[in-house]
Amino acid sequence: MSQRNGKRIVLNISGMSCINCVRAIEKSLSNLNGVISAKVNLTTEKAVIDFDPTILDQKTIEKTIVDIGYQVIHDQLSLQIGGMTCINCAKSIEKALRSKEGIYEAIVNFAAEKVNVEYNSEQISVAGIKKVIQDVGYEIIEPKQGISEDAESLARKRHIRQIKMLLAASIALTIPIMILMWFPPLPMEQNNFVMFLLATPVQFIVGWTFYVGAYRGLKNKTANMDTLIVMGTSAAWIYSTAVTFMPSVFMNAMVFFDTSAMIMTFILTGKLLDAIAKGRTSEAIRKIMGLRAKVARVIRDNEEMEIPVEDVRVGDIVIVRPAEKIPVDGVVIDGYSAVDEKVITGESIPVEKQKGDQVVGATINKTGMLKFEATKVGKDTFLAQITKMVEDATSSKAPIQRLADIAAGYFVPTIILIATVSTLLWYFILNADLIFSLKVFIAVLVVACPCALGLATPTAIMVGVGKGAENGILIKSGEALETINKLKTVVFDKTGTLTKGEPEVTDILTTQKSKPVSAEQLLKFAAVAEKNSEHPLGEAIVRKALENGIKIDDPEFFNAIPGQGVEVKNEENTILLGNRRLMENSHIEISEFEEKMTKFEEEGKTAILIAVNGKIAGLIAVADTLKEHSKKAVASLKQMGLEVIMLSGDNEKTAKAIANQAGIDQVLAEVLPSEKAKQIKLLQTQGKVVAMVGDGINDAPALAQADVGIAVGSGTDVAVETGDIVLIRNDLRDVAIAFQLGNATMRKVKQNLFWAFFYNVALVPLAAGAFYPILGVLFDPVYAAIAMATSSVTVVTNASLLKRFRPKI
After folding, report:
1. Burial call 52-89: b when 16+ CB within 10 Å, e when fewer
2. How far apart are CA 356 and CA 334, in angstroms?
3. Element (H, E) at 257
4. Which of the listed ranges 91-100, 226-235, 697-706 does the model predict with the highest average pLDDT?
5. Within 10 A of 471 (CB to CB), how many other CB atoms are there?
6. Cβ contact 156:12 at 8 Å
7. Average pLDDT over residues 284-310
8. Which of 55, 253, 574, 639 is buried most, with the most CB atoms less than 10 Å from its CB?
9. Which residue, 157, 163, 136, 241, is CA-closest to 195?
10. CA distances from 494 to 101, 497, 622, 657, 670 (A)
């Protein structure tokens, strides 16, 4: 079944601790009849599920996640309601709300006139909930705090607070244990008993979350990081407890209460640092989500009122004063101002806005007052689309992550096997004592870290995608970021991508012979001749004249000469405008301009001759010129070792002229729009990994065919649904910046994966005692815990360093 026939939901999940949790959820969901695909991201703690609603419902999906031991985070909203007269009113509201998709529970307190709603903000908005209540005949009394907080952020804060409390308790109990272990003030048996009393709460109260996690794994027939921690610390605690209460069996044996307690403390420290660092990796994404305005000033029933931004409707007239945020997308109907669009496009220079111009939510009105009509609200706004795209990208998995996923699937069982075999080998074959063998068992279990494997890729991709969004570069998936790293060839479409996409006057030359005219007069003659023209070249001449403040008269006589030009009369002047053939047929001498015409044609320009009253008056050159930064962008890509090709429908001579100006050596000319995708495919058959850069509208098939499609926009007009990467700014330097960011992100991914694999490959044998015969040193379980706690923190911190990325162009 194709994904198009299915339905997609996004769920926020808590309780995951490592990549095996991700695999457990994905496996359980994939086994459900009706699930098309299930992708879980450990870093964002989100699950994206595509399923067939005719076979399966959302309740079953969420129940499956809960049944295997995880929680689906639900948003909470409290609203004050007016108009209720009895308990049945409350029941009507509850029934209406509960019937809506995305609402899990709705409880109305008739006495307090309040409703508490539990919902999924990915499926229904606050405005949608309010509308349901209003549709059944009741009103919303806007409270001072009527907008729900970010449930995900609150859950993370609660989680950090919980870890801090557990860590504080663990430290408070572990320090006395260490003192009793190193400086025993009591006889051994009493000393061991006191340590038992202190270590037991650490093991089973502080460490309860690890036991819960291990139980979930056991229930799901899998093993995770919690399994390793529980097995290692429990072995130390059980052995030490046996020594404490059966001293006659274990004569003068050493206890490991300090080891189990310190392992718990260090692992909790690592979890705290990890949670804080993971929160920082998503700072850029949260920053984007927090850009929107909270309130809007609208005119309804001829009155100006301030309402929550969620309540703005399409068609509302919105007023924005200087220094205020524009709340939603719309079209200006009155006023003039400069708007700072940096938050969306990255451009620092404010953009002038007047009647007819588009404005975008979250941008800042700088100088004047604007009145505009809302055209897009809620999830349809440009900011909401960007936010959704960024969230989808961070939820996607890069192909390189599959290696880590496969490794993680075998990781924990392999570690348990290594720990068991190593312990038995040392005890039974190499005749080590029980304490030595037990230390090996605990150290191997504790030092192994599947978390680092699971976090290596998604943390880096999250930071990379967020950094791109900050710079007006929207990256749609982790796969696009990875493919950038493999690119060999970049193909640019010419018109509208490398060039401005509309011809403009580049040169005006007047005759130096009898009765010369000024450049302004020549331009006026040409504009009069082309005033009613719909040809792009004629429009360019008229536009240039208007820009120069020239008044363009209507021609008194007009005659179009097919394939040659036009003849007009104005103020007793007969004007001829056209090509060589027109002049030759009219017996007008043009030798004065032959050399210049040839030069212009070699430069890709169109030379237009103008004669007045039977004498050559001058020449105007028109061309589709390069964008400001095209040449620099091409040079940057070449410096990165990429092959750059230009694709054009123009004839080869004109195409090569533009390519030479841009610094491009290879040209594919005379390519019809329908054949662009075929040209990309032809390059791919030569073994090249190809990026296609186009305007995202006319080049859609070629962008889809390319390994990476890059759509270049014009500010907020860009179509965000096109391409694998969308550049909001109309600046080709962003192509090079996108590639630099992609390469930097993949370097971080590879560094993280190398560290994660190297760490485990190096330290697991050390913990197993493989180097003891050579070095005479055994890896203490406490140091193993410190190393394990450091491992995942190192990976997340390394990914966070990507926030310091600065473009090299």
Report:
1. eeeebebeebbebbeebbbebbbbebebebeebeeeeb
2. 8
3. helix 257-281
4. 226-235
5. 18
6. no
7. 83
8. 253
9. 241
10. 47, 6, 16, 11, 11
Q: Which one of 493, 624, 724, 734 is the catalytic residue?
A: 493
Q: How far apart are the first and last CA of the chain?
A: 46
DSSP character at residue 311: G
Cβ atoms < 10 Å from Cβ of 629: 18
750: number of CA atoms within 13 Å, CB side?
A: 9
Please choose, from the candidates 70, 76, 60, 156, the residue with its C-alpha nearest in 3D space to the C-alpha of residue 120.
76
Using CB atoms within 10 Å of the CB of residue 742, give its burial: 0 to 12 exposed, 13 to 18 middle, 19+ buried.
buried
**Banded model confidence at residue 145, pLDDT cuts 50, 70, 90:** very low
- Residues 317, 307: Cα–Cα separation, whole Å: 12
Tokens of 166: 């557990």
DSSP 502: S
Q: Which residues have C-beta within 8 Å of that of residue 662, sequence separation ≥ 6?
A: 492, 498, 626, 630, 631, 634, 646
Residue type, 699: D
pTM, two decimals, is: 0.74
Q: Which residues, in sequence order, are bridge partners of residue 491?
A: 645, 692
| Of 770, 784, 787, the residue nearest 422 (C-alpha) | 770
Asked which of 134-143, 559-568, 682-691 is least confident by mean pLDDT, the reply is: 134-143
Which residue type does 524 have? K
Averaged confidence pLDDT in the chain: 86
179/174 Cα distance (integer angstroms): 9
Residue 699 bears catalytic tag: no
Q: Give the span between the Cα atoms of 738 and 97, in whole angstroms.
A: 44
| Of 754, 472, 495, residue with least CA distance to 623 | 495
Residue whose structure tokens are 């296609």? 692
H helices of 44-138, where?
58-67, 87-98, 126-135
| DSSP H or E segment with residue 197 | helix 188-201
d(CA 213, CA 269): 18
Q: Which long-range contacts (CB under 8 A, 24 or more apart) does 483-487 make?
A: 483/689, 483/707, 483/708, 483/724, 483/742, 484/691, 484/708, 484/738, 484/739, 484/742, 484/743, 484/746, 485/742, 485/743, 485/746, 486/689, 486/707, 487/642, 487/689, 487/690, 487/691, 487/707, 487/708, 487/739
pLDDT tens-digit series, residues 228-255: 899 999 999 999 999 999 988 777 778 8
How far is the C-alpha of 271 from the C-alpha of 217, rounded, in Å? 19
**Tokens read off for 677:** 């995708």
CB distance 122 to 73 below 8 Å: no
Write out the two tokens for 490: 């970049």
> Sheet harboring 103-109: ordered strands across?
103-109, 114-119, 75-82, 139-141
Q: Which residue in 135, 99, 139, 138 sits closest to 117, CA to CA?
A: 99
